[in-house]
């Protein structure tokens, strides 16, 4: 869910993973106009999660989209897991509830999820750091390469 929150906060087009998740839970893809209501609060909450606080943006998201916690085993026997919104709910509300719960877990120190913000000049996109040692600094290989090349050129220029 944190990955989904980051995707929406970045303004990315819906990916295959998001589409599959929505289908599995009987939720339609929200139209851009409806989703626009969620984006500012979600973006502020993701930013807060990346920085490790303040907590207020996450709490605002939780107040607007309070999770409805229940246990579900829709994947078959032995696959019980938590759901934070009812299946088939309004898409924006469903996304809001799930993303709010995921970001609450992140700001409370969930060790399984680390969020970051790209260090490339002019980028600023958010990402989920799933690297082995949680030291990722860029949202993509393109940003990492662009930064490396810029640093190399700057060193060569300074050397004369």
From TrEMBL:
InterPro entries noted in UniProt: ABATE (IPR010852), ABATE_dom_sf (IPR023286), Znf_CGNR (IPR021005)
Ranges where the Zinc finger CGNR domain occurs: 115-156
Record protein name field: Zinc finger CGNR domain-containing protein
Record Pfam families: zf-CGNR (PF11706)
Superkingdom, natural source: Bacteria
Organism annotation: Actinomadura verrucosospora
SUPFAM superfamilies, alphabetized: Jann2411-like (SSF160904)
